[in-house]
Structure formats: structure tokens, C-alpha cells
């Protein structure tokens, strides 16, 4: 056999194997997408809020949320708040674990350095969420590692993007950092950390971008925009009881929920130390399973420390069952007679 023939044979086999592997990879992803689609459909069919929430005009896919958004009734959303919400959405991820899933929010990025102060090429992302997304509470601290926690970023457009790691980077090295469990207070907040390689990239609009640089800049913009909104509010140009929640209801690509919160229902279970207050908000923005841990933005909250937040902001906790809290519904319906469901946030810390 001539050398040319052998080379040709090798090339043909190589090409053939390439086709087979590509085919198998596409097939594997198609299988995963169809499995995820089934999980979403099942979760939506079983949702007791489906008739009220799923077609609700107050819940908008992120990519359709813009300055011209028409929301039923008298909701007018200031342009600055729309822009801010989009920044907040970039910092919002889907978190999934062996025990369940929900939404998480990037609060902080820390670049790691060695003893001499040189970069190690690694960074730590701190996310906040609700600890019931793990499907466990008391056991969480002990069995953390078994929950195999992952965070998916920029899952904004299509269900199949969930498996497209170039578009939607997946963070795997996560650990539990802190929870706010406290005797006598129904808390549900926790912080997790994920370690990321500083050279990690993702693709957006056919352009490759550095993940750590991009998110660091988003965090900076987030703080600046939040400050601007706080100032606008003091000039009375923004509706006072507006609430905006960004999340992944039923594990769908990102959606924005808009509604009002009810200041008269606000819980204030504890004063931490002078000038600081633990509190919880109640609101009617439509939320479903998967929204747990979502960032809850209330313009003008007097929270300091991180922009205008102290340490952490409020995350969405859960629906408020009417049979357990009839008084809350009665008070809220004085303002909104057609109110169907109330949601509550986790405890956050404010200035008072
Ligand atoms: Zn639902």
C-alpha cells in the first residue's frame, strides 16, 4: 500500500469519527433539552398559581422588558429603573442542586491573591439565595457537598441555552458560606461562593468576553444606577411601593416580575444594633417555584453597605399561604381588591 493511500485512509477515518462524535453530541444535547422541557411543563402543569400567574402581564420575559413595556393598569416604570433591572438581571443566575433549584444573585467578586499579593488567576463569586432551594434546611451545613450545587449565568433567551456553556457559563466549584438561621425568626437566606478561573470566557452577540471582567463591571454599574434611583426617589419621580423581582420561574429563561409591595404589612422582627433593622417585605409581583432566591428590588430601600444595601439585599422567599395569614390578605385587599397571591421576601437588613 502506498503512503498516500494510508494517509487518505487515515484522513477519511478521522473525518468520519468527527461526524459521529458531532452527531452524538448534538443528540445528547437534544435529549437533555427535551428532558428539561418536560421538567418545565410538568412543573407548570402542577402549579396552583398557573391560571393567575403564567399569562400575567406583570411577568415579562427579560428580553421583552424594555422602556416601551406596556403593563396592565397604571404601572409606569421609569426608564432608569428599566435600565437598572437589566443590570440586575446580568447578576442573576439560575442555581440548581441535587435537592432542587431556584434563582441566585451575585453580590460580590473577590480576586484571589497569594501571600505576596500577586494574582492567583482565580476569583471568588458570592451569590445569595434562599436555602430551601437545596430542599434541606437544618442538614444543609452538614451535608453541603452532597448537594452538587451549580450556577448558570445569562440563561436569558431559550431553554436550549441551558446546555450551551459558551453562552451560559456554568459555575461548579460552589460552597456554602453563610446562612441567617436564628432562633424564633423564620429566615431563609444564605450565601454561597463559587471559585472561577479569571481567564474564563463566554460568548455574547458572537463576541467572546471575559467573565470576571464583565461581571465586575456590571457590579460597579449596578451600584451607580442604584444610587441614581435612590436620589430620583427622594425627588418623588418614582412610584414608591414598586417591587421588581428577576428570576427563573419554573426554571425558564429569565423573567421580570413587577408589582407593588405593601408597606403596612412589612415585618420588622428584630433590631440588630443601633440603626439597623431586620425586615421582610410582602408583595403581589407574580412569582412561582424557581423564583426562590430571586433578587427583590424595592427602589429607595434605606439599605447601606453595598451600594445602598447592607451586606445583602432581600431575596424572594415564598408564597404567603392565605389560610395561614388571612390578616395580611385582608389588609392588602383594602388597597388591591383583586389581589390573588402575596409573596414574601427573606429577611434583609435596613437602616432605621
Ligand atoms: Zn407557576
What does this structure look like?
Mean pLDDT is 86; it is low at 304-311. The chain has 352 residues and is of the alpha+beta class. It is globular, with a radius of gyration of 23 Å. The strands form five sheets. A seven-stranded antiparallel β-sheet has the order 6-5-2-3-4-8-7. It has a four-stranded antiparallel β-sheet with strand order 1-12-11-16, with helices on one face. A three-stranded antiparallel β-sheet has the order 13-14-19, with no helix packed on it. It has six helices and 19 strands. Zinc ion binds next to helix 2.
Tag the structure with descriptive keywords.
single chain, 352 residues, alpha+beta, 7-stranded antiparallel beta sheet, 4-stranded antiparallel beta sheet, globular, binds zinc ion
Summarize the structure.
The chain has six helices and 19 strands.
Q: What is the structural class? A: alpha+beta
Spans of at least 5 consecutive residues whose pLDDT stays below 50 are: 304-311
Q: Rg from C-alpha positions?
A: 23 Å
Q: For the residues shown, what is the average pLDDT? A: 86
**Considering DSSP H and I runs of 4 or more, what fraction of the residues is helical?**
25-40%
Q: Give the end-to-end Cα distance, rounded to a whole number of Å.
A: 87 Å
Order of helices and strands: HHEHEEEHEEEEEEHEEEEEEEHEE
- Which compounds are bound in this model? zinc ion
Overall 3D form: globular
Number of helical elements: 6
Largest sheet: 7 strands, antiparallel
Tell me the strand percentage band: 25-35%
Strand order of the largest sheet: 6-5-2-3-4-8-7
DSSP, total strands: 19
Organism: Biomphalaria pfeifferi
Keywords: Hydrolase, Protease, Serine protease, Signal
GO molecular function: serine-type peptidase activity
InterPro entries: Peptidase_S1_PA (IPR009003), Peptidase_S1_PA_chymotrypsin (IPR043504), V8_ser_AS (IPR000126)
Amino acid at each position: 500500500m502506498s503512503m498516500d493511500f494510508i494517509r487518505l485512509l487515515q484522513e477519511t477515518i478521522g473525518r468520519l469519527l468527527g461526524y459521529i462524535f458531532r452527531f452524538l453530541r448534538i443528540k445528547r444535547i437534544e435529549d437533555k433539552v427535551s428532558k428539561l422541557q418536560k421538567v418545565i411543563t410538568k412543573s407548570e402543569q402542577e402549579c396552583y398559581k398557573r391560571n393567575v400567574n403564567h399569562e400575567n402581564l406583570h411577568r415579562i420575559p427579560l428580553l421583552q422588558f424594555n422602556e416601551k413595556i406596556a403593563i396592565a393598569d397604571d404601572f409606569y416604570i421609569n426608564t432608569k429603573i428599566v435600565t437598572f433591572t437589566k443590570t440586575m438581571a446580568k447578576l442573576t443566575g439560575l442555581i440548581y442542586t441535587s435537592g432542587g433549584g431556584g434563582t441566585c444573585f451575585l453580590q460580590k467578586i473577590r480576586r484571589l491573591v497569594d501571600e505576596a499579593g500577586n494574582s492567583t488567576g482565580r476569583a471568588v463569586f458570592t451569590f445569595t439565595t434562599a436555602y430551601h432551594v437545596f430542599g434541606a434546611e437544618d442538614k444543609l451545613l452538614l451535608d453541603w457537598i452532597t448537594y452538587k450545587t451549580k450556577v448558570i449565568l445569562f440563561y436569558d433567551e431559550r431553554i436550549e441555552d441551558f446546555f450551551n456553556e459558551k453562552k451560559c457559563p456554568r459555575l461548579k466549584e460552589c460552597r456554602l458560606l453563610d446562612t441567617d438561621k436564628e432562633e424564633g425568626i423564620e429566615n431563609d437566606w444564605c450565601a454561597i461562593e463559587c471559585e472561577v478561573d479569571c481567564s474564563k470566557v463566554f460568548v455574547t452577540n458572537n463576541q467572546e468576553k471575559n467573565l470576571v471582567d464583565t461581571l465586575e463591571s456590571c457590579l460597579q454599574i449596578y451600584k451607580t444606577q442604584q444610587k441614581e434611583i435612590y436620589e430620583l426617589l427622594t425627588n418623588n419621580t418614582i412610584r414608591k411601593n414598586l417591587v421588581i423581582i428577576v428570576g427563573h420561574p419554573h426554571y425558564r429563561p429569565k423573567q421580570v416580575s413587577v408589582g407593588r409591595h405593601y408597606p403596612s404589612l412589612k415585618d420588622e422582627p428584630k433590631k440588630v444594633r443601633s440603626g439597623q433593622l431586620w425586615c421582610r417585605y410582602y408583595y403581589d409581583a407574580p412569582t412561582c417555584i424557581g423564583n426562590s432566591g430571586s433578587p427583590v428590588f424595592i427602589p429607595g430601600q434605606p439599605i447601606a453597605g453595598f451600594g445602598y444595601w447592607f451586606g445583602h439585599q432581600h431575596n424572594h422567599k415564598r408564597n404567603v399561604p392565605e389560610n395561614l395569614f388571612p390578616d395580611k390578605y385582608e389588609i392588602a385587599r383594602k388597597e388591591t381588591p383583586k389581589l390573588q397571591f402575596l409573596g414574601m421576601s427573606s429577611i434583609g437588613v435596613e437602616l432605621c
